[in-house]
Amino acid sequence: MQALVLEGIGQPVTLQEVPTPQPGPGQVQVQLHAAALNHRDVWIQKGQYAGLKFPIILGSDGAGIISALGEGVDANLLGQPVLINPGHHWGNNSAAQGRDFQILGLPQDGTFAEFVCVDAGQVRAKPAHLSFEQAAALPLGGVTAYRAAFTRAGLQPGERVLISGVGGGVALLALQMAVASGAEVWVTSGSEEKIARAVGLGAKGGISYKADKWPATLTRQAGGGFEVIIDSAAGPGFNDLLDAAAPGGRIVFYGATHGDIPMVAARKIFWKQLSVLGSTMGTAQDFTSMVSLFEQHAIVPVLDETFALAEGQQALHRMDEGLQFGKLVLRIKD
Q1: Which GO molecular function annotation, any one, does this entry have (predicted)?
Q2: d(Cα 76, Cα 83) in Å, to the nearest integer?
C-alpha cells in the first residue's frame, strides 16, 4: 500500500510503498478514504513528543470502509463505513487514562496510509450525514472537546462558556457542540476574521486575546463572567482566564501550547471558588457520546482545506503555520 512515512526528527513525510497491514485476532482492517491532521503530528515530526520511534506512519484520525476481519470479529462489520477512535487501552478508570493508553499514529502506525488495522472495538459507524472527509475530522479533536466540555466541565444548557483560541480543530468542535447543546458561547482568538467566522457558527461574540485587559471588556459585553472556560494554551495568559471566570466557574484545559503556567494568582482561585480541571482525549464512552451528539444535531465539522495523500507534507506545513480555520484533511480514496 501507499503511506506517508516519517523517517526521523525534522524530516519531511514521504509517500512510500510499504507492506499492507493484516488484521490480527479481534482486529479489523480499514481501507481509509480520508484522514485528518492534528498538532500531534507536527510535534512528532519536530521531535517534541514522548516515545518517538522511526520510521512511523503518522495520523490519528481516519474514516473508511472495513475491508478485512481478524479472527473472532463479527462478520457483519465487513464493508461497513466507519470512523476510528484513536485512543487505545484507556483502562478501567474512567477518571483518567491508564499507563497502557496509546494514541493511534505513535507508537502504532497511523492513518496517513491506504489501510490501517485497529481493534474492532475502536470503530464506530460513520454518521450518515457526513462525508468520509468530514467524518475523518471528528475523532481526536471531537473526543478531546467532548470530554473537556461535558465530562470534565459538566457544561449545561444555558451556561455561558468561553472557548479560547478558536480556529483550531478542537476549539471549533467544542464551539459547535456547545452551541448545539444550548450553551451561550463566546470565543477568543488572535484573529478578528476567525472571531467573525466563529460568530457565523453560532458564537455570541468574541475578543482578541492580544487586547489590553480583554477579560474586563469581554465580561462586560457578555453580561457577566463565564461558568465554563475551555482552553488549550495555558502559559502566562492563564491568569486572564481567572479574571474572566464567573464565581464558582470551571476552567478546563486540554493543552499547553503556550507552555506551563507561571505565578498563578491563587487568591483568585480560592476567593472565586473556581475549579481548575485537566483533560486529555477521552474514554470509549466519551467517543460514543460525541459521535451521537453530532448525529443527533446533524453537526458538520468545519474543514479548512483538503489535500491529496501525496501532499501530506504541504498539509503539515499549513498546520505548523497555524493559519487554518478548521480541520486539515487528506483525501486518500475517492
Answers
A1: oxidoreductase activity
A2: 16
